[in-house]
What does this fold into?
Amino acid sequence: MVSNPKELIPIIDELGYVIEEELATVLFLMLKLEKPLLLEGNPGVGKTRIAYILSKLLDYELVRLQCYEGLDVNNAIYEWNYQKQILAIKLHEHSGKTTREKEDLIFGEDYLLKRPLLKAISSDRPCVLLIDEIDRADEEFEAFLLELLSDFQISIPELGTIRSAFKPLVVLTSNRTRELSDALKRRCLYHWVNYPSMDKEIRIIKKHLPDIEERLAEQIASYVDRIRNLKLDKAPGIAETIDWARGIALLNGSSEAMVQSLACLLKSDHDIKRVMEDIF
Amino acid sequence: MDHYTDYSSFTGALIGFVQQARSHGFPAGIQCSCDAVATALHGIWWDLEQFEFALAALFCTDKEERERFRAVFDRFWKPKGSRVRQKTEYKNQKRVFQQQNRIAVMVGTGKTTESENSEESRNTSGANAKETLKKTDFSQLTEEQSALLDELAEKLLREMSLRIRRKRKKAKKGAIDMGASIRKNIQNGGALIDLARLKRKKQRYRLLVLLDVSGSMDKYSFYLLKFLWTLKSHFKHIEAFVFSTLLMRITDEISEKNLASALRNVSQTASHWSGGTQIGACLKIFNEHYAKRFLNGNTLTIILSDGLDTGEPDVLEEAMQKVRLRSRKVVWLNPLKGMQGYEPIQRGMQAAMPALHHFGAAHNLESLLILENILTDA
It folds into this structure.
C-alpha cells in the first residue's frame, strides 16, 4: 500500500474523486490506525462518495446503513424471519420433535434476516461499512453503535456472539442536524468536509463532464460560488453543480441555458427568485 | 512549556502537545496520545501541514474546534519567530475579559453575600406568603422576596418535572412484538394466543428557549434567566439562546451546576445585554445558523420576549414562519401580558402572532408554572 498521504491523491483522482491533501491525510491515517472516520459537512459535498471511493480503492464490499429517525436494532442489525418461523412451527407440529428441538430449529441462521450491521460484521471478506446520516438516528442507537465500534461484535441472545473476522472500515457521515455525542466522536477520526474551492469545483466538473469547454466550467463554478454565498434556504451541493453543468451542456451552453436549467441547481421557489434577482 | 523546542525528544514534545491541546479544551484522551505517536511513526511529521491535518483529525470533534486547532498547533510547532501574532491576540483577549467583567457587575451577579434580613423573612413566611409570592410581578420584587422566590421556584419546578415524567410514563400499550410473541407461544404449537407487546417508544422532544435580554426586558430578563437555569437542571434536552440586537447560544453557560457561576458565565459572554431589540434579525440568524441543528420538527420552541421590536415586521414574520415550520409547537411568553388591559397590538407582536400556537404571560412565577401543561403535551 501507499506509504505517504500524497501518494493517495493521484490514485483517488483516478477513481473519479477530486481530493485535497487534508482529506487524503485523514484517509491515510484511517487505513493505518484502523479507526472509524466521521465526516461532517453540509449536504451535497461528497461525504457519502468517500465511502464508495474507499471500497473501490481497496476492492472491498460496501455495506450501507441509511439512518433515519426511529431506526432500531431490528432494522440495523438483524431480525428473525417471523413468517418463516411460523410456517416452520406448523410444519413440525406432528413431527414428534420436542419443544427444545423446535426452538433450536427456528432460531437457527436460516431464519435470521441479516441487516447491514450484522452483514458487515459477519462478512467473510473485508468490507467498508457506511453509516450514512447518523445524525438522523436516535441517541439510543448512537449509544448502541458505540459498543459496536469499539468491539466489532454483536450478541444475538439466541445464537451467541458474532465476532468479525475482518475489522470493517467504518465511515460515518453526518449533516450536523444535531450534535453527536462526545463519546462517539472520540472513537472516530473527524473531518469537516467543506464546499469545494472554485478551483477544485472546476476540476470536479471537468472530471464528470470531460467534454465541457474550459470557459464554461469556470463560469459555472464561479456562479455556484457566488450563489453559495447568498445564504439560501438550501445551498447547492456538488451533485447539483454537476447536474446543472450537464443541463447547460445539453441546452447548447448558452447563457439562456444557464437560467433555463437553474432548476437543476436550486430546489426552492424562494431560492430561485433570490438568485434571479441578485445574480442574473 | 509551550513550544516543541522546549522538549528534548520528539515523543516528549508530542505528549507535551497533547497536554497543551487538552488545556485548550480539546477532548484529547490517552488513546489520542497513542494515536498521535502512531501517526508520527507512519512518517507523518516531517511535512508540517500534513502533520496538522493528521492531528486535527485525531483531536477535533467539530468544525469550530478544527478552526481553533490551527492556532494551538501553530503556537506549538511553528518556528518561534511566527509567534508574535498570538501575543497581541492574547492582549486583546485580556481586554475583552475586563470588559465582560464590567458587564457582570452591571447585571448584578457580583453580589454573593445574602442579606441577614432574608433569613428572618424566610422564617416568617407561610403558605399564604408563598401564594402571594407566586403572583408577584417580577418587576415589583424586593431583594428578600427575590431570594425566597428562587427557593420556591426551584421546589415547584422540581415537582413539575416529576409530574411530567410520571404522566409520560403512563402511556398506552405499544404494538405487538412478533419475536417475543412467537417465543411465548411455542408451547401452543405456534398458535398465537398470548401476545407480547412492545413498550411504547419514549417520545423524544426537545426544548428550545429564546430569551430576550434587550433594555425593555431588563426588569424581567434576570429572573427569566434564572428560571431558564432551573429548567435546564430538570429537563435534559434544552437549548437556550439570548438575543437583543445579537443572538447568542448560552446552553453551555447555563449548564453550570452553580447558579451564580452560570449567571456570571452568561453575562460574561453576552455583551449585548440591555441593548435594543431586533427580534426579526436575530431569529433570522437563528434560522440560518442553528435551526437545522436544534429544530427537528419535534421541538417545543419558547420565546420569552415583550415583542417590542424595532426591526422590520416583515423580517420577523418570515422568520417566525420558518421557526414554526421546524417546530412542533411555538409558544410566546410575554411579561407585558400580565398587565391589565394589555393587547398584543405592537407591530412586532402582530407580525409574530400568526405563527404562534400559544401566547401567554411571563410576569410572575405562577404564569411560568402554567408551562407545565405545554411541556406535558410536547
In short: Chain A has three domains: 21-77+115-193, 78-111, 198-278. The interface with chain B takes residues 3-6, 21-22, 25-26, 28-29, 32-33, 35, 37, 40, 69-70, 79-80, 82, 85-86, 89-90, 93, 99, 102-103, 106, 138-139, 175-179, 182, 185-186, 189-192, 231 of chain A (CB under 8 Å). Chain A is about 50% helix and 15% strand.
